[in-house]
Amino acid sequence: MCNKLKLNFLQPIILKCLAISSVAVFSLGVSMSAYADIITLGDDSKYNIYLASHVGNTWTYSVNEVSGKSLSHWNVGIPSCIEHITDYTPTPGYDTTDGSTDFEGIKWDVAESFTSGTFSVTLDADYPEGTVKAQAKAGSKGNERTGNVMGPNCNTDPLSNVEEPQLIVDIVTPDGVCEVIYGVQDWDLNHSQFVTINVQNQVEALGGIYPGLDIEGLDITKDGSLLIGSTGDESAFPGSLYQVDPASGKIKSLGEIRFQFDLDDDGIDADDPVIYGTEVSAISFHPIDSSLWGWSEECGLVAINLANPAESVLVSPYATDNFIACLSNDKSMRRSYTSLVEDISWDESGDNLYFSEGNRVMVYTLSIGMVKEVRQLKGNVETVELLPWETENLLVKTHNSSAIQTLNVTTGELSPEVIDVGEFTDIEAVAACQTDCEAEWTYAKDSINDSTGPSPESSRIQVGNSYFEIYGIAVKMDSDTVTVAVNSRLPVGGIPYHGKQISWGDIVFDFDGTKYGVRFDTANDSLAGGNETGLYEVMELKSVTKANSGHTNFTSYKNYVARRSGFPSLGDLPIVNNGYFGNRDKMPTSMKSGHKVADIEMLDAAALAALGLDFADNLGIPASTYDSANPFSPRNKKSANELGEYTFGFKFNRQAGMTGKFVAHLFTECGNDGIVMVNEPYCE
Fold it and tell me: What is the pLDDT of residues 489-508, one digit of tens each?
């Protein structure tokens, strides 16, 4: 259970307690009385009266005895609404006149045993909020007093009479959505227009202008299926969500964001007020589960229920005014309140949340619970958006700037190249997506005549077509998954050789010095032994060729093969003078130490074929006709010019460090053959 902590700005420890699928609610633990009007009578009796919720046409008030005399009755001063009341609860004690005090409005008498309760009134429409009077009465006439609460103003037009923008037809996301970057421009404070930025960095209008809509937050799912905007407090519908058609800029209302506020630090209950109509200045989709997060300027970080925004959750409360604006539901008060955060953006790992704070770009890292500054800019930062196809580049823009810049979040350096926004100088937010990359298999072909050792057909030492012959490897690396395939004469688990069980070493991926190793053969001499397979971040490699009666180094292996008319190779690298391995280096067959970062799933030949693997076609070597079930049959002899009889592989989750060009190498434990692939991921 996470401890409830009093927040400083974006107090990061709070976020560590989040589970995306089951969001915990946190509060500040401050007194409920800080947000409600304490009415003190002439004899110093005190009562707490406040608007607990306003949902549609129904207004609910919470009333609590604090000290002094027992409450006799209380009133809410809404005389303009008397003729518009359609329902009320509780029914006992209700009246529309107060004969004892001549207070104008409605009245509830309460029983002697009363200490606290809620009272609701339903009107014939949803009227705007305003400040009204509330009165508490106890004891003799003249002891009553009044205070201010929020209530309906029935002298104005109902909110329902204002037409909210709607898209008449359903939105169908077209192809090519992720080929542009989306933005939203403010004209004259609150007139919203969507824009696109194409690959030529040209900024163009997308659809028409929405007068008074005030879209402040904008984001798109990683796959481009949902483009969503949120409104600010200069909108006729503040704190609302809209789906945006990426082809036309037309919009469809998804509803108003509502959440409860835990006033008394005892968990959310029916008495806690429902907050709505706040400025949602920023939104960002979480990269792991596509959950939507938003920043309520007056209240803090909100987990938005996209299916039903009215059931969203305030996760991390934050305000600099003791939450007065958050709890008031007073538009004028909220417009006068300014939060520090104007945009947020999750990175691809879901561990870093970037956000603006005035003229600063900041980042909160969940795994270590720390907030740090990335860089200060010249001007108020309105836009931050981490590009999904790059782990270090953040698009940033300051207020009324003529350019969008790229900020390297690792170095804090601004790129000299900018996107000239032309006339669109007040872009409030941008959104970028990346469609799932359909990775292709990449292949590395080894010499078919460079293995040493016996074969199933002969125990005589030979070169080529032996138990240890490797024909090729293949790698398929998409955005989330890495799949590896191997074709060889050596099965997983190895073979007996010189009184030992000789198995596979580990395949190692080297991304510019960051190494990952896969232990896929539990019979090998990797790490500390045992039978646990998996993907490891490598700390140190080792050679086990000597212990397995193999070759001592690359040069000795080359010479042995060449002297016996073989053609030594390492696939994509020559056997010596390759610039990667030293000529007299021991073969790095296995991991000596490392820590596990992911599990692997083994795949057989049929499963790999279903994923599009085709060694025969891509290596130009015929498939094997050899029957591995009858290895010693005189009529079952494998041709040296066909593939090995074993095709196997595995897959694992791609890690954040697996970017850019890589070198992958795989050796048998005896070093009697090995192969190297030099490549670059098809999907970055």
Answer: 999 999 988 888 999 999 99
